Amino acid sequence: MTLAGLASFSVMDGVMKAASIAAGAYAALFWRNVIGLGLMTPVWLGTRRKGAGFPTWHVLGLHLARAALCGVMAGLFFWGTIYTPLAEAMALSFIAPLIALFLAAVFLGERIARRAFAGSVLALVGVGVIVAGTVAGRHYSAAALYGMIAILTSAVLYAANLVVQRRQAQLAGPVEIAFFQNLFIAVLFAPGAWWFAPVPGGGLLVLIAVGAGLAVVSLMMIGWAYARAEAQVLVPLEYTAFIWACLVGWLMFGEAVSVRTLGGVVLIVGGCLLAIATRTVPVDHGQPNPA
Prior knowledge:
By secondary structure, the protein is mainly α. It is built from 12 helices and 2 strands, in the order H-H-H-H-H-E-H-H-H-H-H-H-H-E. Helix 1 runs parallel beside helix 11. The two termini are 25 Å apart.
C-alpha cells in the first residue's frame, strides 16, 4: 500500500509541477486542496454517520501541525520543481529520512549510534554531487540554485512531517487524515488566495483536479499503511519514488537524468539506509516513555 501511495504521489508531483508552471505554486497548491476538500467532505461525513466520532482537540492539533508542515513543504517543493528537473528534486528530498532519524532523537529521546553519523556524511556528499552538477552545468542559473535551496528546505519540513505522520496515523483513520489535511491547508492558504490564486479555468482546472484526486488517494493509502507498520519499516520505501519521478519527468517534461544525479542518488540512499538500519537506543530519563 505504501508503494502504491508513493507512486501516486510521484505522478501527482508531475501534475502539480505542470500546474505550478502555468499558475504559480501558491495557486496550484491552494486550488488542489480546495478541490481535495470537496472530494473528501462527503466521504468524511459518511464515516461520521456510520458512527465515527469527531476527533479530540489533541488529534485536531496533530492534523493542524501536519497540515502547516505540509503546506509550506509542498509550496517550496512545487516552486523548486519549476526550476529543477523532477528526478533531481526527488533525489535532493531523499535526505528527509535521515533528518527524521535525528528529529526522532531530539523529540523521542533516542540515542543515535555512530553509524548514523557516517550515513549522514555519505548522504551529504551525495547532495553535494548533485548540487555541484547543477552549478557546473551549462544551463546553470540563479533560479536553479534557488530552486534547489527551496527543495532542500522542503526536505527538512518533510522529515518533521514523517515524525508527525506516524503518530497521526495511530490516532486517526485515513479518511479523517485526508479530510483535515485538505481543510487546514486550504484555510491556511486562503488569506493570500485573493492576490496569488485566481480561479483557474479550462484545462488548468482539470489538471489541478487530477492532482487533487491523486493526492487524496495517496494520503489515504499511506495513512492506512502507517497505522499498520512502524515508520522505520516504511520510510526506506520512500526511495522508490525516484523511479517514478524519472519516468514522469521524462514523459511529461522531456527531462533526462544525468550520470551525476544517479551517482548522487546512490550516495544519498546508501547513507540514509546506513543510518536508518542503525538501531537507536532510548535514553533513560527515569520514567516510562509516553510514546
